[in-house]
Amino acid sequence: MDTMIIGTPLLVFIIAIALAFDMTNGAHDAANSIATVVSTRVLKPQYAVVWAAFFNFIAFLFFGLHVANTIGKGIIDPAVADPRVVLGALGGAIFWNLITWWGGIPSSSSHALIGGLIGGAVAKTGTTSVLVWEGIGKTAAGIVVSPLLGFVLAQVLMLVVSWIFVRSTPFAVDRRFRRGQLFSAALYSLGHGGNDAQKTIGIIGILLFSQGYMGNEFHIPLWVVIICQAAMGLGTLMGGWRIVKTMGSKITDLKPMQGFCAESAGAMTLFLATHLGVPVSTTHTITGGIMGAGAARRTSSVRWGVARGIIWAWFITIPASAVIAAVTYWITAPLFW
C-alpha cells in the first residue's frame, strides 16, 4: 500500500479541517446535551450551552482513549489512511453534518465520520478488504443497542423516581428535579465529550501515524486530546437550535423529572460505551432516553411519526456520508497531490 507523505503546511491544514469537523460536531450535537434542560426551562439556552461546553471540555480527565483507538485502528486499515483518505472522510462527515444541522435532523456526527472513513478508504483502494469489519460491526450494533439501552434505562429510572416521590406534590417534584437536571445535564455532557470528541482525536491520530510521527506504534499525544476537546466545547457554545427544538419538544413534551431520567439514562449508556471503546452516537442515545421517559408516562405521549423519521436518518447516515466522502476524495485528490 502506498504511503503519501506531505509537507507541514498541508498537514496543519488537514488537522484544521479535522478541528472544524469537531466544532460542527459540538454544534450539531449540542442539542443532545441541552435539549431537555432547555425544553423544561431549567436553563436559558445561552447558559445551557456554556454549562454543556465546560463539561464537554473536561471530559478527557475522566475517560481513557478507548474510542479514539477504535477509530484510529478499528474501522479501516491504518496503512490506508493517508491524507487524501482523511480529507475525504472529513469532507463527507462535515457536509452530512451541515445538511442534517440545517434540516434540524438529529443524525449522528460519529457515524458520519465513520461512514466518511469507509468511503474514503474504498475510493482510494477500490476494495472493501481494507475495512476492519469487527470494528464496523461493533459500531453498527451501537446504532440499535445504544438507543434501546437509553430507552430501557430511562423507563426504569422513571419508575424508580415515580415510586420514590409518589407522595410528593407535582410542584415539589418539579422544583427538585429542576435542580437535579443541572447534575444530569453535566453528566450527559461529560459522556458526550468523552465519546464524541474521541472520534476526531482518532482521526488526527491516524493522520499523524500515516505521516510517521508515531513511529511503529499507534498512540495519541496529549496535545491532540486537548485541542480536540477545546474545539468540541467551542462548537457546543455555538448551539444547534433547530435540533434542540426537535429533540426537546417534537418527540415528546418533557417535564423536569422526565428530562432528568432521559439525561441520566443517556449518560449511563455513554459511560458504558466509552469504557468499552464503542463509538456510539450521542444523538441516538439521548433520543432513546427521551422516548423512554415519554413512553413511561404513556405510550401515546411520544410522537412516533417524528421518531420514525429520526430513526430513518440514523440508518442512512453511514452510507450517505460514505458516498459523499468518496466523491470528495475523487475531487480533491488530484487537486492537492
UniProtKB/TrEMBL annotation:
It is a multi-pass membrane protein. The chain crosses the membrane at residues 49-72, 84-105, 111-133, 140-166, 220-241, 310-331. Keywords: Membrane, Transmembrane, Transmembrane helix, Transport. It is found in: Membrane. PANTHER family: PHOSPHATE TRANSPORTER (PTHR11101:SF80). This is Inorganic phosphate transporter. GO terms for molecular function: phosphate transmembrane transporter activity. One of its GO terms (cellular component) is membrane. Its main location: membrane. GO terms for biological process: phosphate ion transmembrane transport. It comes from the Bacteria.
